[in-house]
Amino acid sequence: MPELSIEHVDDEIVDAGNGIHIPRAWTAVVTGLPEIPGPVRAHAVYDPTLRRAVAGSIRVDRQGPGDEVTTTLLRDLRVQYIVQWAAMRVVRIQGEADATENYSQYIMRVRAEGSRSSEQTLIEAARLYRLASVTNQGPLKLVSDELGVSVSTATRMMNRVRGTGLLDEATDREIYLLAREEQMREAEASAPWMQPGTSGPSLGR
Length: 205
Hints:
four-stranded antiparallel sheet
């Protein structure tokens, strides 16, 4: 079973927005990965341009005699998975009264909370969205999963967050584009079906 340890965490902590804080850099060491004979060392950094955690470099060590690092082995290495796992370990979330939680504590609290006001729901949606972005997860999926709504509802919820001041400009723009894509998909799904070469909707002819 894979195991993760974190080494050499940078002292500089980056404010990634919405109460999300993450070290500027750290090293993740993963052992026990299937088909990977030795430990994998990933130097991860928070990239302010991409606005998420990324791999700066990856090193694979052989376990001992009889092992070798090959191109095939490197192709099987799930770098994104390692970065995501490690980012979830080092990220911290600042909540009410300046209380700081790790990833697991925050998610457990969100799940345990009962009813929320509309305002609080939008605040948590914005925070979950940013948390997922920073840690290399699907933002809408995390909002959907942790707030117990469909992905379509999560998309509409995030669209309502726009204009509330809860999002920075880059995230606001990203959500605007996602909402446009969702609207286009819904419009295509509800449009009359057209057979190739016909000039109008098919009526089951």
